[in-house]
Amino acid sequence: MNAMRSYIDAVEQIIRRIRDTQLDAIDKAAEICAASIGGGGLVHLFGTGHSRILIEEIFPRHGSFPGFHSLVELSLTFHNQVVGNNGQRQAMFIEHIEGLAGMILRNFVLNPPDSFVIFSNSGVNEVVVDMALEVKKRDLPLIVLVSADHCAVSPAKHSSGKKLMDLADVVLDNCVPAGDALVTIPGLADPVGPGSTVGGATVVNLLKCAVAEKLTAQGKPPQVLTSSYFIGSGASAQRFDDAYDEYRRGLVRALGGTPID
């Protein structure tokens, strides 16, 4: 029971720290995202490893809306097969390869009013920094979500000597201590209970709410994926189809195609 209480206490501290320190930064990030989506562009999302969880938390799921485009590479994020084909060793090796981000972005046409969010707890691995550098080459606004504590004490790994926090227009902090694991158990040498998913999910949902608020104030309320609990099964199913169609239209643009109705 002591370990469980320790974890809950640590998570409560993270959420309080987010509330006390991150709302202004989240509001700035929301301004960027709302300008992209409201202007007919996309907010592109990239992360490796478990950061994929935060991308899926943004869209698609109930209470979310189109305008966010997931750039998720299975080779960097598929962790179900720990060993063997598509194993964890390969994924962890690939995320240290410079030049991969440029190859990924060759598949897309990124132009204003698009913007970008990159997720990484450490903020230093080569592929995420590589992606940030590619985004800056394209002169797009860049938001990053990191553990500021962890990033600050981690040595840069990219050949540029840069970390994500060095390249961002807006830095969002998941407010998780360096090392991520939150609970120390007597007799166990290593701490357990990571907090970055809880902190990250709190930040991205605050961001999503703020973006929805700003779009609505612009007279462009988003097409929200809404549960049948609120609007009935028929309306909910139609809302999902309409939102997916809207997402498809945005993706066609990002792929360099001709916009479709």
Detailed description of the structure:
The chain is an alpha/beta fold. It has a single domain (2-220), classed as Glucose-6-phosphate isomerase like protein, domain 1 (Rossmann fold). The protein is 50% helix and 11% strand. It contains twelve helices and seven strands. The strands form two sheets. It has a five-stranded parallel beta sheet with strand order 2-1-3-4-5, sandwiched between helices. It has a two-stranded antiparallel ribbon with strand order 6-7. A hairpin with an 8-residue loop joins β6 and β7. α1 packs parallel to α10 and α3 runs parallel beside α10. The protein is globular and about 55 Å long.
Features:
7 strands, Rossmann fold, two-stranded antiparallel sheet, 50% helix, alpha/beta, five-stranded parallel β-sheet, 261 residues, globular
CATH superfamily: Glucose-6-phosphate isomerase like protein, domain 1
**Anisotropy-based shape:** globular
Largest sheet: 5 strands, parallel
Helix content: 40-55%
* CATH fold assignment: Rossmann fold
Poorly predicted sequence stretches spanning 5 or more consecutive residues: none
Strand residue content: 5-15%
- The strand count comes to 7
**Name of the CATH class:** Alpha Beta
Structural class: alpha/beta
- Quickly count the domains: 1
Ends apart, CA distance between termini: 56 Å
CATH architecture: 3-Layer(aba) Sandwich
Query: Largest beta sheet: what is the strand line-up?
Result: 2-1-3-4-5
Instruction: Report the mean per-residue pLDDT as an integer.
Output: 93
Could you tell me the radius of gyration in angstroms? Answer: 19 Å
Enumerate how many helices there are, as a single number: 12
